[in-house]
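seq as requested:
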Amino acid sequence: MTLARIGVRNRAETLVLLGVVFAGLTLVADAMVAAIYEVISGPPGARDWNRFNSLFAKDARLIAVRAPKEGKPVLVAMTPAGYAERAGSYFLEHGFFEHELSRKTDSFGAMTHIYTTYESRETKDGKAIDRGINSMEFFYDGERWWCVEIYWDSERPGNPIPEKYLGK
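struct tokens:
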């Protein structure tokens, strides 16, 4: 299998997937996070779900915190394929651009945890429609990095993003 076949788009992403280390820091943070944001972002239309799926480990999960106006928050868990199905139909009709505002990274052994604060827009340069934090977990299997989980919650009244996650 070639790297292009699994959706690798650039040299930085190639180096990350292969586990290349530069100056003692694995490039997983930059290329993996960038690839995830890049593949879900764009004008109305289809996304590259093969590329999206190629970033995830076999039993990976995406978990959204949903907070109704009344009642307690609930979790909505899905596989990468379930996310692609759920979000894919929305993306066909709506533009969605998500980008990173700041990041906190911790690593130990074969695992890396990244808190990446995001902002979402309907157009690339439009007004922000949502902000929150993606908690991303990555695993290095000795050959490449895999996304194991993305768990996110949105900013809302009573749930502001703490300053320490805004890079201030």
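Residues 134 and 152 are 4 Å apart (CA to CA).
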